[in-house]
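User
Here is a favour to ask of a fellow structure person. I am asking you to supply a protein in sequence and structure-token form. Please set it down just below, with no commentary around it:

Assistant
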Amino acid sequence: MSRIGFVQKFTEKQFKYFEARCRPDHDHKKNGKLMTYGNDLYSDSGFIDDTESLSEISKANDEYVIKTLGKNGHDIIGNTLISLICNNQKFKTTYPELCRDIDASKYKIKHNTWLGTQYCPFVDEETWQCGNSTIPQFGGTDFEITKLETEDVLKITLLHIHLIHHHHFYEGNVEYRVSPQRLIEFFDLIPTNQEENKC
């Protein structure tokens, strides 16, 4: 079960609350505390569309990843993104367990940082946390990764990395979804019996 499966630990009321918060913000709900800092819990485009089920999306993504990469599949994807984008000596020293042996010379990375940030839809409104996450549970940075050999371009955000690494969540049928299939094919990922950390 994917980490979004943690919703099974919620009450039905809590689950419906998080599912609703993942949907497009048609009414432009704003939280005064967050908006003071130019941040927001809600997404105009949403993390899932108006008709999708959060649990069904999670189950489908989870089954695909495990079938394709094995039981450590989500970790392979998440740690690949972390190693490539968050790869610096301070990070590697602090979180060596998250590093993979990635040949960064195969890729060109550009980034753009915005003034406002989009919070993870699963954060608690009181603590602004969603568990003990290594990767920030908010995103204000976009990345454009070019695979030099093919000139294929992958667009992803810092929040995507958090959602994939911490929640195993790739979003639903929405504008900013980055599917596990896309990531597996882009990075030429293959199954491993046990994820090895080589940083």
Summary: The chain has a mean pLDDT of 76. Strands lie at 39-40, 107-119, 138-147, 152-157. Residues 3-186 form one domain. The chain is about 35% helix and 15% strand.
